[in-house]
């Protein structure tokens, strides 16, 4: 838990806030796309619309996917530990796989149900 508090505490969110402010500034003031590459506008100028900018956006997507995967992994480990403590459910790979599949199923169900319906 200390590792999670370290990465998800105020200083962890501060890094996200700095990146968001950089993207928002250049999107609002310079009419650039609200993308990760826009934060690099002072460094590389108009080249953000070329291969360098697209590479930065692709790396941002890859980092997001790996970050969500790591968070889901930590969440499943903690959920399995909590279920084991409360209900004596075994601490095993099978339980963790069931938890991952159920979380993914819930996410797919919400995505398929449509934005209009939302999560109720």
Automatic annotation (TrEMBL):
The keyword Iron-sulfur does not apply. It comes from the Eukaryota. Keywords: Cell membrane, Membrane, Transmembrane, Transmembrane helix, Transport. GO terms for molecular function: transmembrane transporter activity. Its main location: membrane. This is Uncharacterized protein. It is found in: Cell membrane. PANTHER family: HIGH-AFFINITY CHOLINE TRANSPORT PROTEIN, HIGH-AFFINITY CHOLINE TRANSPORT PROTEIN-RELATED. InterPro entries: BCCT_transptr (IPR000060). It is a multi-pass membrane protein.
């Amino acid at each position: 838990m200390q590792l999670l508090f370290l990465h998800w505490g105020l200083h962890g969110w501060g890094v996200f806030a700095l990146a968001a402010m950089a993207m928002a500034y250049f999107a609002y003031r310079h009419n650039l796309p609200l993308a990760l590459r826009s934060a690099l506008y002072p460094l590389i100028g108009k080249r953000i619309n070329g291969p360098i900018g697209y590479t930065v956006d692709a790396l941002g997507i890859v980092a997001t996917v790996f970050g969500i995967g790591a968070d889901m992994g930590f969440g499943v480990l903690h959920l399995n530990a909590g279920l084991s403590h409360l209900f004596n459910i075994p601490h095993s790979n099978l339980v963790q796989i069931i938890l991952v599949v159920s979380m993914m199923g819930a996410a797919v169900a919400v995505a398929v149900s449509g934005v209009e319906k939302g999560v109720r």
